[in-house]
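Input/output pair, single chain:
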Amino acid sequence: MSKLKFTVNGNHFTNEGGLAAMVPFAKKADALGYDYLRLLDHVVGYVAAKHPEIEETPYTHESEFLEVFTLMAYLAAQTERLGFITGVLGLPQRQTALVAKQAAQVDIMCRGKLILGVGIGYNSVEFEAMGADFKTRAPRVEEQIDILRALWTQPEVTVEGRWHVMHDVNVNPLPKQRPIPIFMGAGRTAAPVPPPKVLERVGKYADGFMPLFQINRDTGRLEDDAIAALETVRAVMRDNGRDPATLQLELGLYPDGKSEDQVMAEIDYLRSVGVTHVHARFPNKPLAAQLDYIEGFAQVRDAYVAAHG
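Output:
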């Protein structure tokens, strides 16, 4: 069984603390031996009261969005071994070649520890502001993923696709990882299990899956529909000639208010269903509390690793 990776989340600083909190948090996570810091992506905020058609979200025009590639590059210079996960990048909003270039540069800066978490996006107002087509975002992202991998691994790339035309180009220097792993996020907190079409896309294109499934506090297990969704992704991989054992899986763990034994049992359970990246999530509180949270969880993590490897 492969070594678990442990990720902490920086989303809460979007609504409280900003960069002034993010830097000491990243440094502390690095010192505590966390593998990754997960960072969200929104280029623009929208005025929620003026757009009731958009599903409710905590991220609005009042949120302080730090541009994710710039932020990762900056934090990479502040840390020694910490990796970064975008959670998640609205890929169809962005120019594919530019994403390839930015991600390659960040991967070099963070010593080959970038995971590009991507999704198709949910906010049509943001797509409009970015000059992108909201309606075609799903098929577009599939073409983008193929092109990203080509640009990250080949000295010359030529593409004549539905949305992309490139002739004899590259993104020199290439990233340290060739290619950078691409994880796909999907679902919303209120409806975490994506529809079959989305699960099919994950199984066909993604190196990893980062859904919003949560362990049931009463049963200590994932819900049956979440387990079924994971099996669907693996079945699609088999049908497309991909080894389902290679699927990386990041799932959230919510340690607050639980005993050490319960948290360790949940880590063990997540590992048993194929989780490779445990994503520790904590309540939205200021920096001092966040530092205490990640220090306390690091002790539980170390106890688990000592007992289970």
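DSSP finds nine helices and eleven strands in the chain. The two ends are 9 Å apart (CA to CA).
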